[in-house]
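Structure first, sequence second, as always.
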């Protein structure tokens, strides 16, 4: 039994501690009641973590990574202008260590690979490179594996395979070490876990907890990147795993085997069908919301085998998906045209949209044709990608009704790749898409009206809030108005008609309500659907209303 500050000014005793490996967080009893502040204004959007942007060493350097290389790439992020557009992570992938530990089991790195970069530094200390990355206004990422032998042990690409490159048996120690070195991001791979036939939910939850410990001690957080290649449906368990307020999870295998210039790998080329397949396999909009993102894999834009059209398709699909934008090419070799694709203002703004939703597959009018649409922050704003995978031009269209816009009102259309207004239209937009290419547009119309539901448990703080009789079918965007006046993000489980769907993060709001938007898969029970939110954080959330928004986006 312990006492926690439940909501501002309210002390709640009598907590029921339920520790669950699956959920990895603490649930509370529903004993607290308090009047909601009398708020007559309109709730604004909650500020949620956005998908990470940056660069990773793997696609173009395999396990040949070292300090010199990282310095060059970090500098290039700045000089190309990429940093200014938000590409801020410099992620050191596999190959940074060779599985050696000292008598305390602390990781030992090669002093030549990671030398001192300043006079007062010690060679063989990863803090050196982190300090350098930070000095450029960038953030630093590191890589490990769930299992004992990581990917460098089993699939080292440009070998040799080093035994013992995973973190199993050392989770607390290693993640504390990463935080102490100053890293801001950690990618946790699955090669060892896969070999050992582990149940991924268990170690990935333990790792989430190991990540949160140094965070609680030092205030320095590691962004959590789960990399089980979509093997075990991570979209069903990775959002908010272990109570983390933000994370990403890979939804499929690698697009590229690394292509390293001047090596035995150098003649490889990108198989573009894998870009398209990773996009399709990564569509799990019910899991992507409030700071949790499907990771479609690193970008292969600018790599051998790509073209202007392919780069444009790739950027359009990743940004409408709201996917992490982690460049995999050698940045020092990117030409102006490729950089312009990576720095397209509108594509980046769609990717980094503050609602943090994933685009949804709106229609597939014919084989090889696909319309993907994404709800954006601000009333009546949408993004649409028309993808034509066929070898002929294709006429494609989208209706305002499907987008949840007032069908009779005119909406303005902006073309993302030609950087021009495409005009104002009533009820729909049609366009001819060139072969093996995309058209991507932003639309500003009049927001359709949604249907609002109040919770009968409106003033019940803590455990559960239930919204019954919600008459919708299929996937719909739902706006959830809430208050969380604790200091940090609260995480709640969402059930629809008694089945668990996802965990939803509710960032701190202060006293006044804010909203998050989630995509909810509804069934069709005769009495309507029941949505139940269960507070898993023990901090308390007051849920006020849910509104099923118009349209299928
Ligand atoms: C796996 C991951 C890749 C990369 C390599 C490193 O294949 O999916 O992204 O990290 O391991 O070996």
């Amino acid at each position: 039994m312990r006492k926690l500050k439940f909501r501002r000014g309210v002390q709640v005793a009598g907590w029921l501690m339920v520790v669950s490996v699956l959920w990895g967080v603490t649930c509370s009893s529903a004993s607290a009641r308090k009047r909601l502040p009398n708020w007559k204004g309109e709730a604004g959007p909650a500020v949620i973590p956005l998908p990470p942007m940056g660069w990773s060493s793997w696609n173009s350097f395999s396990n040949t990574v070292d300090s010199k290389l990282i310095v060059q790439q970090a500098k290039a992020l700045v000089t190309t202008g990429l940093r200014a557009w938000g590409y801020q992570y410099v992620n050191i992938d596999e190959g940074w260590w060779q599985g050696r530990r000292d008598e305390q089991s602390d990781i030992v790195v090669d002093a030549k690979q990671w030398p001192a970069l300043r006079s007062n530094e010690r060679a063989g200390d990863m803090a050196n490179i982190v300090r350098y990355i930070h000095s450029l206004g960038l953030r630093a990422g590191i890589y490990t594996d769930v299992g004992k032998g990581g990917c460098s042990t089993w699939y080292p690409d440009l070998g040799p395979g080093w035994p013992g490159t995973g973190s199993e048996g050392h989770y607390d120690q290693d993640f504390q070490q990463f935080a102490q070195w100053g890293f801001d991001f950690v990618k946790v791979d699955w090669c060892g876990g896969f070999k050992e036939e582990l149940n991924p939910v268990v170690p990935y939850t333990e790792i989430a907890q190991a990540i949160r410990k140094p965070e609680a001690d030092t205030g320095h957080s590691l962004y959590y990147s789960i990399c089980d290649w979509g093997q075990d449906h991570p979209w069903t368990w990775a959002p908010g795993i272990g109570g983390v307020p933000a994370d990403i999870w890979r939804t499929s295998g690698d697009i590229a085997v690394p292509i390293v210039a001047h090596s035995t790998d150098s003649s490889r080329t990108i198989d573009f069908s894998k870009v398209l397949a990773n996009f399709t396999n990564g569509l799990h909009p019910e899991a992507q919301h409030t700071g949790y993102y499907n990771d479609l894999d690193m970008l292969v834009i600018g790599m051998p085998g790509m073209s202007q059209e392919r780069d444009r398709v790739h950027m359009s699909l990743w940004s409408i998906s709201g996917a992490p934008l982690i460049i995999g090419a050698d940045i020092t070799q990117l030409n102006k045209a490729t950089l312009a694709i990576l720095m397209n203002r509108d594509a980046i703004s769609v990717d980094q949209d503050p609602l943090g939703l994933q685009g949804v597959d709106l229609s597939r009018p014919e084989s090889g044709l696909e319309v993907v649409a994404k709800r954006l922050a601000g009333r009546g704003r949408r993004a649409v990608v028309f993808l034509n995978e066929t070898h002929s031009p294709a006429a494609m269209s989208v209706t305002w009704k499907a987008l949840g816009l007032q069908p009779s009102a005119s909406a303005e259309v902006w073309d993302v790749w030609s950087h021009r207004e495409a005009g104002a239209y009533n009820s729909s937009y049609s366009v001819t898409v060139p072969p093996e290419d995309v058209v991507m547009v932003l639309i500003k119309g009049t927001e359709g009206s949604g249907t609002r539901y109040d919770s009968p448990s409106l003033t019940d703080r803590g455990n559960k809030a239930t919204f019954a009789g919600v008459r919708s079918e299929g996937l719909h965007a739902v706006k959830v108005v809430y208050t969380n006046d604790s200091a940090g993000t609260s995480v709640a489980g969402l059930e629809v008609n008694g089945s668990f769907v996802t965990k939803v993060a509710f960032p701190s709001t202060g006293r006044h309500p804010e909203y998050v938007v989630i995509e909810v898969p509804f069934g069709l029970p005769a009495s309507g659907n029941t949505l139940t939110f269960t507070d898993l954080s023990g901090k308390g959330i007051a849920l006020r209303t849910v509104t099923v928004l118009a349209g299928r986006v």
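Margin note: The longest strand covers residues 474-483.
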